[in-house]
């Protein structure tokens, strides 16, 4: 177990139901630092699980919750559509009712990579809107509800938004993805200014290329090798590495860091 300086704190991590994912790894890392955790998912149909999850008898957020509990922490797994304000408020209310408080929010949920990665002239309006509903509206709703709870507690808090190097640089065939992350970074800076007087720190993380399910459309052959070759350190990050960095941003060691968009990609982004 790591230093338990976050003992007694409660974190909400959205989008944490997949086996190979930043959300799962972040929930586990926060638990290792002493947090109780709420982890959300969309209630995926097990028939759609990838082969590795099926082979592992993975059960989405329930399996993530088991990993958190295995570290001796409480975990509340919730199926939540974060683009629905009522469901988001219900999530926060249940968190406070069951776990007593909320100190950390990790806005990690995102639309599935793939159908949004097309040229603008081929972009389906429904897909475009859904990417923004999950990434931008979802983060807005979750932050609004959680920040209100944090302010009522009067003990500060941490909000971490998962962004991308596509936000500052743009990315071809990714209008929705690039735009959503750019909006999220703008909101990150705004929220840091609004909530600073309440000692609520707000930052964004650009994780770079991470070896998770989101990269499966590249395969693990030549395209994957080429992607890793673009990274100065020569390989993609693991989900565990990103999760530990996010947890670190919630410790006392980073108590003066707010309003920042931080690169964590082994040298794949310099903006």
Describe the model.
This protein is of the alpha/beta class and 271 residues long. It has one domain (10-263): NAD(P)-binding Rossmann-like Domain (Rossmann fold, 3-Layer(aba) Sandwich). Helices cover 41% and strands 13% of the residues. The protein has nine helices and seven strands. It has a seven-stranded parallel beta sheet, sandwiched between helices. Helix 1 (22-32) links the parallel strand 1 (10-13) and strand 2 (36-41). Helix 1 packs across helix 9 (239-248). The protein is globular and about 50 Å long. The chain starts with 9 loop residues before the first strand and ends in an 8-residue tail after the last strand. The model has no long low-confidence stretch (mean pLDDT 93).
The number of domains is 1
Class by SSE composition: alpha/beta
- CATH class wording: Alpha Beta
List low-pLDDT spans: none
What is the CATH T-level topology? Rossmann fold
CATH second-level architecture: 3-Layer(aba) Sandwich
| Beta strands, count | 7
* CATH evolutionary superfamily: NAD(P)-binding Rossmann-like Domain
Q: Name the beta content range.
A: 5-15%
Report the span from N to C terminus. Answer: 34 Å
> From the alpha-carbon coordinates, what is the Rg to the nearest angstrom?
18 Å
Please outline what is shown here.
With 271 residues, this protein is α/β, with parallel strands linked by helices. Helix content is 41%, strand content 13%. It contains 9 helices and 7 strands; from the N terminus they run E-H-E-H-H-E-H-E-H-E-H-H-E-H-H-E.
């Amino acid at each position: 177990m790591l230093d338990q300086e976050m003992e007694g704190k409660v974190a909400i991590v959205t989008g944490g139901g997949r086996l190979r994912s930043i959300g799962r790894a972040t929930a586990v890392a926060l638990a290792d630092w002493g947090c109780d955790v709420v982890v959300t998912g969309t209630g995926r149909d097990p028939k759609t699980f990838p082969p590795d999850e099926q082979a592992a008898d993975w059960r989405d957020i329930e399996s993530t919750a088991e990993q958190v509990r295995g570290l001796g922490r409480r975990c509340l797994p919730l199926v939540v559509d974060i683009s629905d304000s009522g469901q988001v408020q219900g999530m926060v209310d249940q968190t406070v009712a069951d776990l007593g408080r909320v100190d950390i929010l990790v806005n990690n949920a995102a639309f599935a990579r793939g159908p949004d990665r097309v040229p603008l002239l081929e972009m389906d309006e429904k897909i475009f809107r859904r990417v923004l509903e999950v990434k931008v509206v979802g983060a807005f709703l979750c932050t609004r509800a959680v920040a209100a709870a944090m302010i009522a507690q009067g003990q500060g808090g941490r909000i971490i938004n998962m962004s991308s190097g596509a936000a500052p640089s743009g990315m071809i065939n990714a209008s929705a993805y690039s735009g959503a992350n750019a909006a999220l970074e703008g909101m990150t800076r705004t929220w840091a200014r609004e909530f600073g007087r309440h000692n609520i720190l707000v930052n964004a993380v650009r994780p770079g290329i991470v070896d998770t399910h989101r990269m499966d459309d590249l395969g693990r052959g030549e395209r994957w090798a080429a992607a890793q070759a673009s990274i100065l350190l020569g390989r993609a990050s693991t989900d565990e590495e990103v999760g530990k960095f996010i947890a670190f941003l919630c410790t006392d060691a980073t108590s003066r860091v707010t309003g920042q968009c931080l690169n964590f990609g082994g040298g794949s982004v310099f903006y």
